[in-house]
Each structure stands twice: as C-alpha cells, then as structure tokens.
Amino acid sequence: MAENKTESELFITRVFDAPRETVFKAWTEADRLAQWWGPQGYALEVEKLELFPGGQFLGCQRSPEGHVMWGKFMYKEIIAPEKLVFIQSFSDEKGNTIRAPFSETWPLEVSNHLTFSEEDGKTTLTLSGGPYQASEDERAAYESMRPHIQQGLMGTLDQLDAYLKQT
Fold first, then answer.
1. Which family does it belong to (predicted)?
2. Is the domain covering 10-166 a CATH 3.30.530.20 domain?
3. What are residue 133's phi and psi, to 5 degrees?
C-alpha cells in the first residue's frame, strides 16, 4: 500500500497518558475496543476480530434509538505495538462491503494508518488515512465531509482517552 499523501487524507495526532502497549491493545482487543469505539452514545458489538494481516474486524454500532450500522476493518499491516494499518468499510452483518447508508458517493473503502510511539509513559497516536481506491466522486464526497470526519474522530479519541483513564 502506498504511503503517498493525497489531498483527501486526514491527519490527527493525539497524546494519551498511558503506555503504548495499553493504547495498542485498546485498538486490537475486542473487549477493549467495544468500550470506546464509535460515535458517542452508540454501543459497539464485536462479531469478530482477527488480528493478523488479511484478518477482519466485524462489528455493529447501535444508536440509543436502536439504529444498527455494520462495519468492518480489513487488517493490512500489524506491528505490535507500533503500527496498525487497516481498510475500513461499511458492511452487512456477514461482512460484505456495502455503500454507506448516508451517501451513494461515499468511498467504499477508507484507509487508516496508525502509529504508536511512547515517551515517559505517554503514547502519541498518529492517525492518517483517506479514501482508498476511490473514484473522483467518492474523493469529493469524502473531502466535503472532512470537518465532520475530523470532529467525529476527535470525539471517538475522547472516548478512548476516557476509557484509558478508567483502566
């Protein structure tokens, strides 16, 4: 997978007051991931988490009103506890990639590159990513939603921070 930056890529850096191994496990162990991943107020139910290149995470997010959205990660690269690369998609309950429920032009796949570095017991997470193998229309849809994506990811990372403070 190319590491080349594109205009559509998103970059977020966040420091957590927790060891790198703990932060990495929060991303890669089903019981931990279920405690914080997703929009605020949503519950995550993990169907499977196969942590190896070519493995898959499959889960559904349930809104407080009961609305269910399935999603998956296809793991591409895992270097514990330094790096995690996966392709994220909306899916059905069987893990088949589907269009986002909110847009016919949303990218079918979004790449995510996470690096974890530790200094003095604190972990710096750097997240980059964006549309993967996307059409121009899909890239444009992603770009038009960039502020909302960033805001959503920051909220999710706030939940990760709160989870780490409890552990």
1. Belongs to the AHA1 family.
2. yes
3. 50, 45
